[in-house]
Amino acid sequence: MNWGFDTNAIHAGVPSQGDGVPTAIPIVQSASFSYDTATALEDVFAGRQRGYVYSRISNPTVTALEERFVALENGRAGVAFSSGMAAIAATIESLCEAGDHLVASAGLFGGTLALFDEVLSRRGISVTWVDVTCHDDWKQAIQPNTRLLFVEAISNPRLDVANIPELAAIATQYGVPLVVDNTLTTPYLGSLREMGAHVVVHCLGKYSSGSGSSVGGIAVDLGVFDWSTCQSKLVQVASKRFGAFGWVAALKKGVATHTGACLSPINAYFIMMGLESLSLRMARHCENALVLATALADHPLVESVTYPGLPHHPHRAFVDQWYGGRGGAIVTLTTRSKSDAFTWIDSLRLIRNASNLGDAKTLMIHPASTIYREASPDRRAMAGVTDTTLRLSVGIETVSDLLDDLLNRRSV
Amino acid sequence: MNVTINGQIEEIPSGLTIIGLLAHKSVEMPDMVSVELNGEILDRPAFDTTLVSEGDSLEFLYFMGGGQ
């Protein structure tokens, strides 16, 4: 169905024909699914017939979410996971084995950094870190055993904006997929498929859910990469059988089914409900973020403000070209001292001090003492995190109330 | 002519390729189906050129086995 973005956000994945069909996706809260005959169940297990057998493998509510999200990304197919980190881990696992290598942008989210540093190294997968803006460094970092390039569309919390078309061209030139974490931009701000990216991963518990109610993740094949040329062994085998669906088949059948990081049906439901209002919320998120980023430049505790929507941000031209001038909803602030940062957080009455983002509620956190607490000094520096850094995840409240709270001039 | 598809003997028109047989059988989401021909996995590019023969045994298998 060739629907527009907002129509897909509301209708994709939910059957609409027939009498008495529910208008919201039913929550199929069942671990298993029974069949009348042993042959029927055998056929589904074997793959001869489509069907559900066990919710670790697949579940109708989760399938509906996958279909809706793939439609929003204009992708080929996708697999949902229990979290964004699970989606990233499974994507890496589908493309790499011991002895393989990947190139990643410096300044990734702390959780991803820890996964790459601590888990991948134990599995014999090496990582070369490069500056997201130094495209020659990406080329030089690619080795014969490189299996993917990994980048965040907008990095968290450094707020570098990756030039996805440039990086996708490099990836294509060297025959490896570009995997993009699109959590901060969401498919609403811009189409990564049009930019040439190959795979996107998301933490669905952020803007997609929108209410901070659920954790979830997804990995989507954007239908751009020729998987028959992929050097990853698992994908090579799957591509021979399933052609263009080779990577998704490898991800689903070769990794997700066995590792079991499945999304719960009720979380899939909440995320689908959130997606219905994604456009409206993202527009408000971005509007509020620009207002706060502009106003906070004059705040007495603030030394600097970073926000991709500000005119002086170094990547503003890319934001204008590909994201419609909308810089997302994370604002990174630098205070004069850690003490000032803590004092500011403690003074807030409306804005919550919490480790999440993309919530309708505005949240502030001191990354160095929380998300990056276990990161080494050089890893913190790579992510642009110091003791004076604060991350503001701008919500969709009345913006004057947020300003009053941040300026300590209210009685909330 | 007669072939065996997923364990069932069926009569199909002569001269079908694998991709033609998938269409003839109205297989749902054929892009997501792999095919075993006489016990051997058939590479995807061969779907367009491989002709189905009398007595062949075929298995159509979804990779979303156990789901979708």
**Any idea what the shape of chain B is?**
globular
The largest pleated sheet of chain B is described as: 5 strands, mixed
The pair of chains with the biggest contact is: A-B, 31 and 22 residues
Q: What is the N-to-C succession of helices and strands of chain A? A: HHHEHEHEHEHEHHEEHHHHEHEHEEHEH
Largest sheet: number of strands, sense, barrel closure of chain A: 7 strands, mixed
- The number of helical elements of chain B comes to 1
Report the portion of residues of chain B in β strands: 25-35%
Poorly predicted parts of chain B: none
Number of strands of chain A: 12
Secondary structure class of chain A reads alpha/beta
Structure, described:
The complex is a heterodimer of chains A (412) and B (68). Chain A is built from 17 helices and 12 strands. Chain A has 412 residues and is of the alpha/beta class. A 7-stranded mixed sheet of chain A has the order 1-7-6-5-4-2-3, sandwiched between helices. In chain A, strands 8-9-12-11-10 form a 5-stranded mixed sheet. In chain A, α5 (110-122) links the parallel β2 and β3 (126-130). Chain B contains 1 helix and 5 strands. Chain B has a 5-stranded mixed sheet with strand order 2-1-5-3-4, with no helix packed on it. The termini of chain B are far apart.
